[in-house]
Structure formats: structure tokens, C-alpha cells
Amino acid sequence: MTSETSELLADLEPGKRTMSDLPYGGFLVLEHDVPALLIYRKKPKDKATMRLARTGASYLIIGDSHFEYFREFIKELTTKMADRFGSFILLELYKGEPASTDFIIKGPSHKLPASLETLSEELSAIDSRRYDLKLGAQINHTKNRQKPGDEPLFDIDELKAAGGTLLGLELPPVYCNKSGKMYPLYFRMFRDKLAKAIQKTIYEFIRVQTTSDIHSYHNLGRRRIHKEVLKIDRQITEIQSRYQFLLLVAPVNIQALRHKFFETNFEEIDTYHYRLLPVDPDLLKRELYNLRIDEIDDPSLSYLYNEKREELDKELTMLKERGSKNFFYSSIRLYQGVPRNVLAEAKLILETIPENHEESTEKTIDAHQFQELAKVEFEYFKKQAPHFESNIHIREDVNIIMVSNGELYLPADYKMTQIEAQALIQHELGTHALTHFNGSQQPLSQLSAGFADYDATQEGIAVLSEYLGGGLTGNRLRILAGRVVAGEDLMNGADFKSVFHHLYTDYGFTKERAFNITSRMFQGGGFLKDIIYLKGLVELRDYLGNGGDLQPLLAGKFALKHVDIINDLTQRKLLNAPKIIPRYFENTNFSTKLNAFKEGITLSKMI
């Protein structure tokens, strides 16, 4: 062993990582706090199997010459790690014969029954039937843990004396053809399931056989974000930043549309006009699909970025389809329609909460007064994170209050009641601006821009914040419910006038609110986004009611379906906890109201 290599193993300081090329074509990634190592020996036309080995927190790639060097290196590493943790597990991966469809697990089944059974069960569960495969797993009790024909890494008794345990895993090469070329979509699924199976197996060993304080199999995934992943993350965020999807599907002639509709006694609605597209959707799609997301070997990150690319692809397609029926069909794909339980909640709200027509007589504040309230909230954020920065824009060319890229935009003529202002502060700033900032403090910029399908979760949290902050009114809840009913009408083929009259005549909305809900639902050609506010609130209630925690959801912009992945990445110390927590967490009735929500309070009772 070279002196340079000996130095690598001289001081395996706790909490650190070693990542280095090795002589003779080898490569090592070693997490000093993980008493486990995946091993792969380089083979011709076998890049796919090497990528499978690289999913581990710690892995060693053995070069194709000077095998004795690697044998000595592994022996010294095993001795050092076993001295520290009491034991050290090594798992060698190799590709089986072309016709094989079985995983072959090689190890001391009598000594590690739980670990090997866990591995067998997890591997057997990998989806194969839909691809006309019949994957199986068998455990072989043998001292020959390597690929038939290869030299053994160790004498098993010698390894045992050093404190190590070696397993072998033969992989059925169903993820590639005979020449080694991958089937990319199946490989991705196979890799993700294999990585989790191995992590669970190693965790079972570590938990029983070592002194390690690792408390979850999630900690056994990769503990660094490769620079190429960070590059892809920045690129996809930059592509997303080149167009403002919601602005581009909103009509620029909304005031004229409203005037004509009311002037003609609700009979005529003119054609929607839209802003010119600042981008060529096809060229942006080309850039999206030039990103090498397929080469991300961390299963969690690979899933997130594949999913985000698909969402941006759908949005870009919709920009090309503005004003057509195809826009509506794409909207269904993006927002997935109106769930039955959400529609039932919406109808209950509209049937039990009357429109409050007295609200218009309450004292109001203007945009400049609201700006001062927002400044106070931003100062509250700065007490938690002194480097927090955001701006407030009062504009003539916006017609709704919104947060974009963490900054607040206010229509110059906007007026609201004090209680509406209280709700909007928590909705727009305590949720949208706050999660934008918290996401910007993460290594991944997409947590600031928003991973796929984050909208429903964000809006669910934002509406919940209105309730927890004491600002959720009956009229506000009715608007959210009206959007769901309008979305269902749209799905059933109703036209603009029918949807308007359903809200105005049947449910008692004012003509202004009925028009606003309807016009938003028909923009672009039929846009279902507005259903997500109530949908997100119902999903959030179910999540929290089943033991979920609210605070971690504020770490950035992501969907509830991503919680396990975000927790996984956080446990691997790849992501951070939220830097800023909203003001309503300090309210004296916070716990009481949150517990009521968790226990399944009917939404109509939240006002």
C-alpha cells in the first residue's frame, strides 16, 4: 500500500468524509460515521452495476488491476472501523449471468438471519410483473461471497478476526441488455428499490452488531450532493425563472371583461387577451431535456428532479395552448381534478356559511397601510434571521396581492378590512415569503422555487395560517369553496355563464365575487389551479391528523408527497431545518386550534 493511501486511513475523524481517487483506477467515498461499505469491482461494459454501488453512503470501486493492493486496503479499513464500532459490514455487488432473474444473497444466514431476511423480502418486492419478469431472491449460506471465477476479497475467518462481516449480492441484470446498455426507466426504479433494500439491511446489522448511533436507515444514503446535481438544480431553477406561468395565463383585459359582462346583464363575455410569451416553450423544453438528470445516482434527488422536469414540461405545453381546449385538458393533468371529499367539504361550507354582506361596511385600510404592517412582519423575520431581505412593491399593473420570488406585490388601489389584513399577512408573508426564504437557505435552489406539485401544500399551509392567526373569515372560506364548485362545473362541461349563475344565484355570492371566481377558472381555456387551496387544506388536515408535523413543512416549497424524501435528505444532513418560524406559533391558542384541526374539524367550523 502506498504512503499516500495509508494517509487516507490514518485519521478517520468522526463526522468527516473521505472522498478520493485510489491508485490503479480505484475510487473511495467513506463516511467516517457509517460502519458499512459497498464494494464493486470494475468490469467491462458494466457501468450500470457500478452506478448501483454508488448509491451507498460509503462505497469502494476496485480498479481492474493490482487486486492485492485493494485487498490490503480493505483489510486495513475494516480493522480501523471495527475497532471503533465493534464490527464493520461489507457488501460486494456484482452482475449475474444474462439469463438470471434471481438475486443471490451470499452470507452467514445462521448468524444474520434478520438482516438477510430483510434483504430477501425487500428485493423480492421490486416490481417486475408488469415488465414480464419474475424476480426472486435466494439466500446462500457460503463462504464464497464473490462472483464465481473472481478472487475472494478475504479469507472469511481472517476477516472475522479483524471484526468484519462480508456479504455478496448477485444482481440479476434485468436493468440492462446483454451488451450492458441500460433500460433507463426500469433502471431508475430498480436502483431506487435496491438502494432502499440495501440500506434497510445494513441498518439492521448496524443496529444489532455495532455501537453506531445511526437511528434510521435513511442515514445510510449518500451524504453529499454531487456538484453536478447542484449544477442541474441551478439550471432547472434558472429555466423556471425565465417565465412567470401564472402571470402568462392571466388575462390582461380582466377589467374590460368584467365591465362588458355586467353591462350586458351577465350575458356576454368577451375573448380573453394574454401577454406575449417572453420565451419559446420548445427551446426551453430542449434545455430541460438536455439536463443529465438520468445520471443522478441519489434515488431521492433523481426522483425530485425528474418529477420537476415533467411539471415544467406540462407548463410550457400549456403556454403554447392558451385559449384552446387543450389547455384545459393539460390543466387536468397538472392539477388532477376535484377529489370527491374536497367537493363535499366545499358544498358543506357554501350551504352552512351565508355570505356576509355587512363586510363591505367595515373600516378598511389601503395598500400603503398594509405595506407598514408587512414591514413589521419582515422585522419579526429579521430577529430570527438577520440576513433576511425582501421588498414590498405597490403597483398599478397588478390586480391581486401576491408574493413572487419572496417579494410582496400590492395593487395600488387594494383595500381590505383589518381582519383580512391579518389573514393576508400570515398567508402571503408567514407562508409564501417565509418558505421562499427558508428554501433559499438550503443547498438546493428548488426548495426556494418549488418542487413539483408544491402549490397545494403551500396554499393549504397558507389557509391554515389564516385560521391559526385568527383571520379566517366566512367569506374567505366561501371563496375557496366556490372555486372548488366552479372547478367541478368546469370538469362537467359548464360554460362561463352557467358557472357564474351557479355561484351567484344558487350559492348567494355577490356578483363581483362570482365573476372573480368564474373568470379565474376560465382563464387560459380552463384552469383548475384554484381548486388547490381547499384541496391542500383537506390534505394537510389528513396529514397532520395522522401524526405529521407542521414545522418541517416550512423548510421550503415542496409537496406532502415529498415529506419522506425531505426527511430522508434532512437526516442525511443534506438539508436544513427551517430558519424562520411564523409569528402565529407564538399565539396563546396556537396549540388548541392546531389540535382541533388535527382532530378533523369540519372546515366550515374554522371561522
Short note summarizing the structure:
This protein is α/β, with parallel strands linked by helices and 607 residues long.
> Percent of residues in helical segments?
40-55%
Percent of sequence in beta strands: 5-15%
Total count of strands: 13
Give the distance, in angstroms, between the N- and C-terminal Cα atoms. Answer: 72 Å
Number of helices: 23
Morphology? elongated
Average pLDDT metric? 91
Instruction: Summarize the main sheet.
Output: 8 strands, mixed
What structural class do the secondary elements suggest?
alpha/beta
Chain oligomer state: single chain
State the strand order across the main sheet. 1-2-4-3-5-8-6-7
Rg, alpha carbons: 29 Å
Low-confidence stretches: none
Structure description:
It is a single chain. By secondary structure, the chain is an alpha/beta fold. It has helices spanning 3-8, 47-53, 67-85, 113-124, 156-162, 184-209, 227-241, 245-249, 254-263, 281-290, 299-320, 325-335, 340-352, 367-384, 418-440, 446-449, 454-468, 474-491, 496-506, 511-522, 532-545, 563-571, 590-598; strands spanning 17-22, 26-31, 36-41, 59-62, 88-95, 102-106, 136-140, 164-171, 364-366, 392-395, 402-404, 407-411, 415-417. The protein has an 8-stranded mixed β-sheet. A 3-stranded mixed β-sheet has the order 10-12-11, with helices on one face. It is elongated. The N and C termini lie far apart (72 Å).
